[in-house]
Structure formats: C-alpha cells, structure tokens
Amino acid sequence: MFEKVKEISKLFVACGVVLYLFGFISLTSYFARFGIVSFDVVNSRFIIAGFFSFLAITLVLLIVWRLYKDVSLKKIYDVEGWSDRFQSYFTFWSLIWGASYALSLFFDLGKYISPAKEESLTFKPWFGNYDFIGYFIDGFNLKLGGGSNFIIKFAIYAFSYSLIAFLVLVLIFIIQDNVPRRKKEPLSADEVKKEEIQENPKAEKKLLTPLYLLRCSIETLILCVLASIAYYSYLKLKVSLFDFNSFNSHQTLTPNLVFAWFYVTILTTYFFLNFYLPKDGLSLDIFKSFGSVNSLNSLQLTFQHIFIPIIGALILFGQIIFPRIPFSIGGGEPREVEVKMKQELPLSKERHLFLIGESSQFVFVVGKDGDSSSAFQISKDEIVYIQTRKRKE
Q: Where are the chain's structural domains?
C-alpha cells in the first residue's frame, strides 16, 4: 500500500513539473515577443499556461501515435493494406479537425458574452418563412406562466420533425426491400483475374494493372493535398505570430488557426519519429502506458525521442495560441486597461494600454500611441490602481 501511494505521489510530482515547465516555456516565448523577460521562479500562471499547452500536446501525442501505428513511410504505394492506408489518411485529417474544434470550443468558454435579450425566451420557428410546422405550432395561444409555454411548443416542434425523419427512413427501407435483386451471374475472365489479385495483392504490382496505377495516382493526389495543407498551415502560423501589430484589431482563436498549429506539430513529430529514432526504434508501449502509475520511465523515454518537436510546439503555442485564449480562464488574451501611476508613462493622452501579464514585482503592459507601440515592465510599487473594464452606455 505504501509503495502504491509512493508511486502515485511521484506521478503527481512529475505531472506538476511537466505543467510548470510547459507553462514556463509558453509564457516566456509569449513575453519574449515584446522584449519582456521574467525571472520569477514561483508563478501560479505557469501552471495555468502549462495546463493549456499540456492538453494540446497530449492531443498531439495521441494523434501521432495513431498515425505512427497505421501509416509507415516505407510502405507508401505498397499494394498490401492500401485500403487501410487510405482510411488512415481520412482518419488523420478528421482527428485533427475534431481536436481543433474541441480545443477551440473549450477555449471559447472563457469569452465574454453579452446577455441575450428577453425575446430569445419566446418560441420562434427555426427555418424562417417556409417553416409551416413551426408557424402552425406558434399559432397556439397557451396561457401558461414561466417557461412552460416555450417548453411545450418546442417539445411538439422537435417531436414533429423527428416523426418526419422517422417516416422518411421507413419509406427508404420499404423501397429498398421492394427493389428486385439481380441474380448472381458467372464471373467473367476479368472478374476472375481481379479475385486472384485480391488473394495475392503482390501480383497486382507485378502486372502494373490499371487498377494499381489508379491507386497510385489517387494516393499521390492525397499526399499532394496533405502537403499543400501543411505548407498553408506553416504560412498561417507565420502570419498569426502575436506581436505589436496584433493590437490593431481584436484577435480571436479560430478553429483554422488551432488546426494549423496541430497539423504542423503533428507532422513534425511524426517525421521526427520516422527519421531520428535510435537504432532499436520506438516501442508503441510508451504511448499506451502514457499517464499510468508505472509510466514515469516511459514518459522520460518518450520525451527523449520527441524533445525537439515538442519544445518547438510549445514555443509556437506561446507565440500564437496562448495570446488568443480568453483571460477569464487564465489565457494570455490582452485586455485594454487604464493604469493610474504615481508617475505617468511617456505616452500621449490618446494612448491605449493593454495588460498582457504580470510577475511578483512587475506588470507587463503594451502601449499603443498612434502608429508607435512600446512594451513596459511597470513596478507594482508605482501603480495606484488598474481599471480593467468600463461600461459603455
């Protein structure tokens, strides 16, 4: 029992160190874009930033593990397993899109949303003027208080369309059952040849059949599309680097930007695993045991293999993704503030100040004064107060 508790405590300590290290790299790379250096050893924001980057890197490792397991660079254009390989390409693309949207939705939880109007609590048809079912249900005048009127109408509305969808599916099944089926005819010589190729896939490559050439062409097209997406994602990241020009407009974290970061990080890690592994290769067990109590040695081995791409991914995360995460959930999104100081900053009255972070002794502020911009490390002893939000009538 004591040994198990000891192992669990080691795991918690290791996770804490990883979160702190990830957060330190992300925040330092973010502040470095403005020439700001923080020498804080203890900063709780490192843990928060580390959680965001750790969550993203964990998704990267899971997708890389799937790609590394299913697709080998040495077996591209190989006849054996071509259908599984094509499916892996589609799965790879789908997983990245899914992870991008999931992460974007998670970060959107911290966005400031204005209260909705009272009119939104009134039942309205979804499909506009042609939604006859909705307008028919809306015509009933139910004299009920609270939200009962809305709930009853919307329940009838949803049930009506569910019933329509069910009837359409039943109709499709009835039509399929009544369609006469063709009797199986004897196989032709070409069909017999195709069956022989399916039983012996290597024969297809030797014969250079049109089917094999077609498969090679399709796979080449898929690889060209994937390469084009990679190049576009690289350019997207270069354009989206957060710096002084980013304060000219409101910067939001879009799924496309998250996708670009995921795509470049995953491909870099994947190619690194394929070309820069030790002679004994990489055991997939290190991914399967990731996060278990007895995985400290496996975790150390994992980061030995992918240390360089992970560090690069954390730097890009700090310079591109983290500055766009809403500050309300601990992200690095700049917020416009008013700073009252004992001695005013050398800026005009038309300046705009943006708070990007703080340490135990300093507050980090970026000032926009017309076309010029400056970054300041302001001592907290010199600050009287900071006004963070102002209501506009």
A: 2-111+209-329, 124-178, 335-387
Taking CA atoms, 210 is separated from 204, 213, 218, 312, 366, in Å, by 9, 5, 12, 44, 63
Structural tokens at position 155? 């329940």
Rounded CA-CA distance 250/111 in Å is 12
CA 205 – CA 197 distance, rounded (Å) = 9
d(CA 18, CA 36): 23
Beta carbons within 10 angstroms of residue 392's beta carbon: 3
For residue 287, what is the DSSP state? H
Q: Which helix (H) or strand (E) holds 4?
A: helix 2-32
pTM: 0.71
CB 23 within 8 A of CB 53: yes
Cβ atoms of 110 and 331 within 8 Å: the answer is: yes
Give the residue from 203, 185, 258 showing the smallest Cα distance to 80.
Answer: 203
- Quick one: which H or E segment has residue 388? none
- For residues 360 and 383, what is the distance between their CA atoms, to the nearest angstrom? 13
| Dihedral sign of CA atoms 195, 196, 201, 206 in order | negative
Query: Alpha carbon 88 to chain centroid distance?
Result: 19
Pull the structure tokens for residue 158.
């949803």
Encode pLDDT of 61-109 as tens digits.
888 888 888 777 666 666 666 777 778 888 888 889 988 998 888 887 7
- Helix H or strand E encompassing 194: helix 189-199
Distance CA 110, CA 339 (A): 24
d(CA 43, CA 92): 37
